Amino acid sequence: MKVPVARRNLFSDPVRLAISIGGVAVAILLIIVLLGVYAGSVRQMSAYVDNVDADLWVAQAGSPDMIHSFSVVPADMVDQLRGMEGVAAVYPLTSRTTLVDIGGQKNSLILVGYEPGGAGGPWQMQEGRADPGPGEIVCDRVTMQTNGLSLGDTITIDDQDYRIVGVSRDATIMVAQYAFVDIDEARKALGPNRINFILVKAAPGTDLEALRQRIAEGHPQQTVFTSAEFSENNAAVIRVGILPILAVVVGIAFIIGVAIVGLVVYSATLEKYREYGVLKAVGAGSGALYRIVLEQALISSLMGYAAGALASLLVARLVGRIVVQISVAYYWKHFVSAFVAAIVMSVIASYVPARKINRIDPVIVFKA
Question: How far is CA 184 from CA 40, 92, 119, 134, 232, in A?
Fold first, then answer.
């Protein structure tokens, strides 16, 4: 009958086991939540473009996205593109980030001007209307919630008063929220002959790449993106800015998990040092001793993974309620990555204790 040495050693001290499981759980929790926040932020950055009913985006050359670049295109291009073969519809769009003081609190709003009834407006409404007229605005629910606003309230942007006639959902990018106005209102800041982007809807059956090439060749001072390309460019803003920081924090969480499991297994190994000597004296090889240590580390890590993964689901709900600007998006690959991390933690954490017991001299068994 095989004796479960690893489990007996590990469960002989419940407090030490709990510390090990808790440490791994915290590390796994951090890894999953950070991956979820990152995925949610990427989704937020591209959500607007993904929900605009357009096939092509025309922007000023050198302006690859909506957030950290500024595009200005001539307004007369709208009429020029409307007469082009293969074009079903063309919509002008303005977009700029502005700082707004609401009740003494600073808010970053991405003010989008679009033609009501056309493309570029809010894609999911919580209440009210989605077609603002002169002096009217549609705000995101995050703006409303964080500032205590209600439908019908008035906010001031660049000395212009706007009455809130609609509340949209999911129109936030963590540090700013989208707000939608009639394009004629938004163009007051740019001037009547300028807009920021042109949205092009291709006619059914049109070769999209050929249409893009025709527009680009006829307007060399502009860049033409497919919606997929423009969406990826906006998501890349988060990838470039957050991914390096995320990698460092995830790495720290992983190291903490390895250290805690390693210390617990190492202390359990020292406590049973003479018992390992007995095993070695009766013929246990290095491989068998290493498997005992590895099994202890695996049990601690996998129990910690289970606790951390379950806790991450609760944390996601809490984060969404407490910090409404943050979106947490979990995917199965996040949990798979954390599971792999837990296994790797076990392997690394068991290395030092395994070396320790493999150096045991069986003679210690016979010493007083």
Answer: 33, 10, 15, 8, 29
